[in-house]
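Session log. Operator J.P. requested a structure for one protein chain; no other inputs attached. Running the standard single-chain path with token output.
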Amino acid sequence: MTRHPRMLEPARWGSLELPNRTFMPPMGTHTANADGTISASGVAYLVARARGGVGLLITESIQTQDVYDLPTGSTISLTHDRHVAPLRDAVAEVHRAGGLISANLTPGLGRIMPGGPGGLPPFSASDCPTLMDPSVRCRALSTEQVEDILDRFRAATRRALECGFDAIDLHGHTGYLTDQFMAAVWNTRTDRFGGDVRGRATFATEMIRIVREEGGADFPLSMRISVRQGFPGGRTPEEARELAVILQDAGLDVLLVDAGSYEAIDYSFPSYYMGDGVYLPDAEVVKPVLRIPVAVNGNLTPDLAEQTLAAGTADFVGFGRMVIADPDLVRKVAEGRPEQVRPCIRCNELCIGNVVAGKALGCSVNPEAAQEATRVLLPTPVVRAVTVVGGGPGGLEAARVAAERGHKVDLYERGPRLGGVLEPAATPEFKRELHRMVDWWEGEMARLGVTVHLGHEVTADAPEVTDADAVVVATGSTPWAPPVPGADGLSAVHVLDFHRGAHVGPRVVVCGGGLSGADAALELALDGHEVTIVEAAPQIAADMVVHNRVALLRRLAEVGVRVLTGHRVTAVGGDAVACEGPDGPVELPADTALLAFGVRPDRDLPDALADRPATHVVGDCVQPSKVGDAIHAGYAAGAAI
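Structure written below.
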């Protein structure tokens, strides 16, 4: 019997019968062709998730007008008739894969655009400040221009219906143009599109009316709003409830809820710092006042999704980044194999990070994401004996892929556990998804017949190497510290040793403000330690994706971590850490100096095997980097054997 009966039961999304209560919320992929048509990779991405059993796929935001916004060059559009045929074919492919699909339509970005047509400021509901530069005011749309946007929305709706979509979803959240009309902080209009909550909702209710007129009274229609916008002057719970009822009465079938805005970007794309069920409080705000179903997502796991449905907090549960990480999530749960779901580690690096940077969507843990059309693992024509040295993310992924293709794989790890640097890094509760990732790999090793050898050091002349047909070297990195006096003393503890259980005192100075140092500081402060971070650079966690960094800095401030940037550690004593800052020397009382200066590649085995054929070197032993880089390199190595 399944552990997730509510999640897997059929349910109605308006007049549309879904096979289960799951949906994929709209997520940008930046895979569209430059002319706004959907690409082959975009189609394959959707089809993979349809095959994976998601009850309803909702597309990324589809542009409905390109007059008052600048074209992005990588977003699906329905602004012209030429966009219809490729999208119609995509919808047909999803249907052939057994899926249902809704078109997410957006009338524009407004004030969050870096600029508007003609090199002038962007348009918005009113002359509110632009996001990129608050000293620059938006151009307020005239009543005639708003009506023109709605006329163009009507034309796009007709095209969406011509494509054969099963439903339409309206983009009304995260501070995009529709949200700008609905929010008092951005809408100071005096015509029929402004005023009180009902007046500010007119732009949205007009779009609802248009869909009803074009698609019919029973055509499935949903909309997503931000219940909490997350900044002073943003939407209140009372306004959110009133707005939700207005939208329901205007003709919505389902209301999707979330939180955040570009002013509170960490809520729009919740990272691992924010825990599970980030938007459940928002569902609880509006659910009691509505007759129509409520849909929610935001760091849900299958178990939490089941609990949410059973408690009546929501009627549908969404998996966004989780089905980027594993498109087969729902099917695996339905087949009683939830432990085989590849977890999303909520790093935001290659999904949200790529899209914000204008690149095509990727995934740190799933190298095939948005590349399903080209990255296909085919059975090997010749079975080879493969030795993988190193049980970190790069080595584990290489072993998995090679074994998936049919090779005989032995994996050797010199330590007592698999996971490499992930194993100690996953000790804080907010990083438990990393533990789940290691658990998943362990399950894959067993499922695929990989022989795992723990506590086994491999040398260049060992038979494990010389007798193998192919070798993958993933020996990782070693801790590094500058020649600071006292850094080898009893009061100095390396960050990895701390994660492995080394004792630290009540007062801790973290020497190094990279990601590992900052996360360790947060973990220590949450455990009650007095913590100071010392970093030579102008800011901590500088190479971290911005959405996560905002959440990290907020959490560090909440727990009272002191941050000293522009300071260089000069000595570690028995009860203090000496630093040099812009205003001269500083002495910080400390029981423990936590060394988080960084790591260097472990090059011994890679250099010894440099001339050996059929040898692949991946991960931190090439160049210390992020977990996604190691996983992608391991995937490529396993696929190349």
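Operator note: The longest helix spans residues 143-163.
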